[in-house]
Structure formats: C-alpha cells, structure tokens
C-alpha cells in the first residue's frame, strides 16, 4: 500500500464507455493480428526487426539492440542507410514516380503538388547547393521556415548529405533562433523573407538578421522568397536566394550518403511547456524505423492513402508524422500553411473534402476549438473519405473525443489518442485501431514491445485507477539518444529517478502523471507538477478539468492550485465557454461545481472559477498551466512572449480582479 499522501493514492479516472472499431476498418487494417502484443513480448527485442524491415538498408545491421551502456542504447548497430533515400528515391525505383508525395495547401488557397519525382529533383538540387555552400557530413543546418514545401525539401536535402538538421519553429523569436544556432554551432541557415500570419505579411528575415547579429560565428544563409513583391528584401553578404540556387544546380544529383544507423538525423527542441526547451538528439536507423512502423500500425497509413497531420513541422509531430513516417511509407502527405479558421471555420474540412483525405491527425486543442465552433462547419463538407482519426499533444477528455468521432468521423472512424514526446521520437501509447477497443479519455495500452508502467514513488506499480508516474521500462528504437546539453543532463533528466543501476534496472521517466486501468489502458493526466495536494489528497488537475469540460457549453478548462503557504491549497479553474457565457453566468458556474462534486467529491470543488474567452496557449497549442498558476498565486509572470496569445493574460488578470 502506498502511503496516504503519496503517489499511488488517488481515485479512479473516468473514461467513456468502450467503443469498438467497425469491421470495415479492421478488415483492411495494416495490423489486425490480436497476437501482436504477445508476439512482440516473446520476440523482444527481435520483434523490432518488423520496423526495420519497412526500410531499405545499404548494409544490414549486425544487432537489433546493443544495451551494454545504459541508458545509452544503440539500435540496429552496424546497419547503414540514408533517410532521404528511404523517403524519396526508393519510391521512384518502385515505379511510383508520378505518385503525389506532398500536397501543399497555401494560406490563400494556393496549391502545389510534388510527385515523388518532383520531390527527388528538388531534394537533389538543394542538396547539391548546400554542398556547394560548404555543408559537410555532420554539420548542423538550422532550418527556420514556416509550413511551405521548401521546409521538408530542406530537411530531406540535409538528410541526403548526412548533415543533421535543426528545425526551429518559424514563430519563435530571433533570440530563440540564436540560442539554438549557438548551442549547435550551426553555421548554415535556411529561412525565408517572410510569411503570412493572420492575413498579414510578416517579416521573418528581420528576425534572422537580429539573430545573426547575436551570433559570434558567420552564417551562410539561404533565403526562400515566399512573399515576392509583398515584402521586398535585399540579400547581403553570405546570403543566397533559394530559387537562384535551385536554378544554378538544376538537374544536379547527389548520391545519398550512407549513414550509420546511430548517426544523428536531426536535433529538435521540446516545446518548452514546462520550462527551458531541451535539445533532443535523434538518430537515423532507430528513429526512422520507429516512425515508419507507428505510421503503419497506429495511423494505418497505406501508400495509396492521402494522409494529413495538421501539426507544424517545426515540432516533433510534424517531423515524425508529416515528413519522415508517411514519406518512408510512400504515401501522400498533406501540408497546410494556414490556420483552421481562415478564411472560415470550415477550412480544414474543405481541405479534407477536396483531397479526399483518408487519415487525419490533429491536436486536442484543435478538436476543442472545432467543438466550440459547432458541428455546422464539418457538416458543410463531404468527409466520407476519412477512415481513421488521431490526436496528440495533450490529454483529450471523453466529450471532445466523442464529438470528434461523431461529427468528423461520422460515428464510424476509430480515433487513436496517441501519447508520445519529443524525447520518445514516435508514438509509445495508443490503441492499435485494427486490434483494440477504444476508451474515450484513455490513450490506450503501451504499444507492442513498449513496456509502459505507472508507478509510485518507490517504483511499485500503482493499483488500477490510481495516480502515479508514467514510466517506460525497456528501450525502444525511436528513443532520443542524448540531449544536446550532454549525456549527464540526459541521464539526470529522464533516467535517474526510477532506475537502479546497481541492480541493472533502467527505467525512463516521462515527467507525466497517469493512471492505468485493469486492461492496461493508460490515462495521461498531464505533468507531474499538474497534480495538486489538497488537504493531504493528491488530485489530478486534469481529472478536475475533465469534470468541468463535461458540462454542456464549456469548451476548455485549466485547473491549477494556489498555495499560500499557510492556508490550504485553493483550486482555481479557468474556463472558456462555447457560446461565450460571461463571468456573471452563475448557472454555468453552479453546474461546473456540481459536476466536479459528483465526479470527484467536494474536496475537488473549485474555490474560484474564472471565465475567460481563451486559455493561454504555447505556440504548439498546449494550455500553459504554469502561467495560470503564477497568475493565481500573484507571482511574477516573467516572459510571456513564448505564448501564442499573450494578450489574453491581461484579460484573465482583470477577470480575477473583478471577482
Ligand atoms: P517541455 O518538455 O519542454 O516542457 P513539451 O513536453 O510540451 O515541452 P513535447 O515533447 O512536444 O514538449 O510534448 C510532450 C508532452 O505532451 C508529453 O509529455 C505529454 O505531457 C503531452 N502529451 C502528448 N501526447 C499526449 C496524449 N495523447 N495525452 C496526454 N498528453 C500528451
Ligand atoms: Mg516534455
């Protein structure tokens, strides 16, 4: 028994009633073998050959896993391959050169299709240009581009010549860019003049100029002209125009550089939701095998599909599931430059309809927005091409999950709630849509071969339904190899807390809190810090949020604790509503309080309910609870420039003041 106040004591987490995938889905699913879990366990780690078999290797690997120096695991050692070859060339050789690789949808309705042949030409020409600029194998190339085709082209061009890329999300500041380039000693940058943000031409090059001033080393910079006459720019010293370079190297080909499986493919920073972003290192073999396998088994991607992940490539989701996973499988991947509500709130559904999208993958924050806007928008379009829906990035509670399945998936499409992190590289927890029943509100079991455990402070498995630490007990191919900050930081951050090196036991700690049910289904409850202690009871803020968002008319909620030191922790609930109920709407407030009391108990009753038009979000769309906690506690908020909607902070502070 866990101690009374410690981890491992909580209450059962509500999930919706189980739902089964339709037979029509199961019959065609890439993975429908119910024994797949048992097989992976029996054959572990050789089971991962299935993932490696999805790739083309220049030289076969000698061992699937080398684990003599934990937590520094090496996968598919001795194997050699090239990621760009796997994502492009081999599909041409397979006779699929006219198949669409990328369908790009521009902000203002522009459209471009790159066949695999077009992509091959672009990647080769740009790879030749990068080489000519001096990029050598293992040089880090920074890419600071919005969602335009040149972004995946640049990534694949780097991969082709064995130069790791470091993509910096285009919306980040010049400081963020400079810090990342400095940390990686990156002397090459691919960027653009500007791009459209909320309808206006936004100057990206200006941010780049500032970043370059802050750097001590010289930077060769390639500039994509995205805005033409709308935003004239001049190229200075060490600056090159992307299109001129493409012309200069028209028709050039570059042999893909054969990379060791353990060579770095890219460097990527985490979203920074909980603090300073961490630079995560991913390798060529294990990462590519794992993203290809999960695209195949979880997202059920088939080569003939049109697949759309609406994330930004500037985050890991876009790396793994817009670029590398789908292209490794030779499918058509849709890339969208704009926002879901421009020119109208049916924009995404218009794109699904026109492209006959088969599989759609998005974030819970987007689903909650769709729900807030209403079903009339998806109803305007024919969404019958959809076969599977997915979410990633935050917990999704049963109501939005059901809404998504009902109004986007016509009540038919399976929905996969996929849990993973920048550090895990690929999906680790989800249902397999061709095998498992779904439980809205729970992501699912650990995938085959993934040893997910929810444990208490002492490392013991918590009882079903209780809150614990989300950990992973065995390595997996897509795992980060280290942090750019160094091996020590990597060990400290993820492996120290629950490993016992003397006993030879190693366990990865995700930093997330979770509960697990009798069937091994995991409900991720957010960050460990999002669990608050009220009168000696551990309460998951996400559980309270789920009870609040269950209330008809509530769109989103974020719950934090206010702890004044002397008095008991007070619960603050920030709520945004579908119809814009005002702060004075006591009926909604009462329903919220009632619902929390019924679902969890009076101990979880919010002391303060703050209505706000929106919740503060990170640039990757996650609710910034850390900031809301500071607001509740009256603490210094520090720098809010990392927010997507910084203007909301003042409104929330004013709303609290009125209360
Ligand atoms: P940082 O690590 O810098 O604070 P971050 O954790 O937000 O930033 P990411 O790696 O992009 O950066 O996000 C991973 C996190 O997202 C997970 O640790 C988890 O908290 C959350 N997450 C992802 N998918 C899910 C999911 N399906 N259910 C619940 N939470 C999820
Ligand atoms: Mg994280």
Automatic annotation (TrEMBL):
Residues 543-622 form the AMP-binding enzyme C-terminal domain. Residues 98-481 form the AMP-dependent synthetase/ligase domain. Residues 1-24 are annotated as: Disordered. It comes from the Archaea. One of its GO terms (biological process) is acetyl-CoA biosynthetic process from acetate. The keyword Nucleotide-binding applies. Keywords: ATP-binding, Ligase, Nucleotide-binding. Residues 34-87 form the Acetyl-coenzyme A synthetase N-terminal domain. GO terms for molecular function: 3-hydroxypropionyl-CoA synthetase activity; acetate-CoA ligase activity; AMP binding; ATP binding. Its EC number is 6.2.1.1. The keyword Transcription regulation does not apply. NCBIfam families: Ac_CoA_lig_AcsA (TIGR02188), PRK00174.1 (NF001208). This is Acetate--CoA ligase. It comes from Natronobacterium texcoconense.
């Amino acid at each position: 028994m866990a101690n009374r106040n410690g981890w491992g004591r909580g209450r059962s987490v509500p999930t919706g009633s189980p739902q089964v995938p339709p037979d029509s889905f199961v019959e065609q699913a890439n993975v429908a073998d119910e024994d797949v879990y048992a097989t992976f366990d029996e054959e572990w780690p050789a089971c991962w050959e299935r993932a490696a078999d999805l790739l083309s290797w220049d030289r076969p690997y000698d061992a699937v896993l080398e684990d003599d120096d934990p937590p520094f695991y090496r996968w598919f050692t001795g194997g050699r391959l090239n990621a760009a070859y796997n994502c492009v060339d081999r599909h041409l050789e397979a006779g699929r050169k006219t198949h669409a690789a990328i369908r790009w949808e521009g902000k203002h309705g522009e459209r471009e299709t790159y066949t695999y042949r077009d992509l091959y030409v672009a990647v080769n020409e740009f790879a030749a240009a990068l080489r000519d600029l001096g990029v050598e194998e293992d040089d880090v190339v920074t890419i600071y581009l919005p969602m335009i085709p040149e972004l995946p082209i640049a990534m694949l061009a780097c991969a082709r010549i064995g130069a790791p890329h470091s993509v910096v999300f285009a919306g980040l500041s010049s400081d963020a860019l400079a810090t990342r380039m400095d940390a990686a000693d990156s002397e090459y940058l691919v960027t653009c003049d500007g791009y459209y943000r909320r309808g206006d031409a936004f100057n990206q090059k200006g941010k780049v100029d500032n970043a370059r001033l802050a750097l001590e080393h010289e930077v060769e910079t390639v500039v994509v002209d995205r805005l033409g006459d709308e935003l004239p720019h001049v190229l200075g010293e060490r600056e090159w125009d992307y299109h001129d370079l493409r012309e200069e190297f028209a028709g050039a080909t570059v042999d893909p550089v054969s990379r060791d499986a353990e060579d770095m493919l890219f460097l990527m920073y985490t979203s920074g939701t909980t603090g300073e972003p961490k630079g995560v290192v991913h390798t060529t073999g294990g990462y590519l095998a794992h993203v290809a396998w999960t695209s195949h088994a979880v997202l059920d991607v088939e080569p003939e599909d049109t697949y759309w992940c609406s994330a930004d490539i500037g985050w890991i989701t876009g790396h793994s599931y817009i670029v590398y996973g789908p292209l490794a499988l030779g499918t058509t991947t849709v890339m969208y430059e704009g926002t879901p509500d421009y020119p109208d709130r049916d924009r995404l559904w218009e794109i699904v309809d026109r492209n006959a999208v088969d599989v759609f993958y998005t974030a819970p924050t987007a689903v909650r927005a769709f729900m807030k806007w209403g079903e009339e928008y998806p109803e305007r379009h024919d969404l019958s091409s959809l076969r599977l829906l997915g979410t990633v990035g935050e917990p999704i509670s049963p109501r939005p999950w059901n809404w998504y399945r009902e109004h986007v998936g016509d009540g038919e499409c399976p929905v996969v709630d996929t849990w993973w992190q920048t550090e895990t590289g690929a999906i680790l927890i989800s249902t397999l849509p061709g095998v498992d029943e779904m439980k809205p509100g729970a992501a699912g079991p650990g995938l085959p071969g993934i040893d997910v455990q929810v444990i208490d402070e002492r490392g013991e498995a918590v009882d079903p339904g209780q809150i614990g630490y989300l950990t992973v007990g065995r390595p997996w191919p897509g795992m980060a190899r280290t942090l750019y900050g160094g091996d020590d930081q990597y060990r400290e951050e993820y492996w120290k807390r629950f490993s016992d090196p003397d006993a030879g036991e190693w366990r990865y700690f995700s930093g997330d809190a979770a509960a697990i049910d009798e069937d091994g289904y995991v409900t991720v409850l957010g960050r460990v810090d999002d669990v608050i202690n009220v009168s000696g009871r551990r309460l998951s803020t996400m559980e309270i949020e789920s009870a609040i968002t269950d209330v008809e008319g509530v769109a989103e909620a974020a719950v934090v604790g206010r702890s004044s030191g002397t008095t008991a922790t007070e619960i603050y609930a920030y709520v945004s509503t579908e119809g814009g109920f005002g702060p004075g709407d006591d009926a909604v407030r009462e329903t919220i309080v009632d619902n929390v009391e019924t679902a969890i108990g009076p101990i979880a009753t919010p002391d303060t309910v703050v209505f706000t038009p929106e919740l503060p979000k990170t640039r990757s769309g996650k609710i910034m609870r850390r900031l809301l906690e500071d607001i509740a506690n009256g603490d210094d908020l520090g720098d809010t420039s990392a927010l997507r909607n910084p203007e909301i902070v003042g409104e929330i502070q004013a709303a609290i003041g009125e209360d």
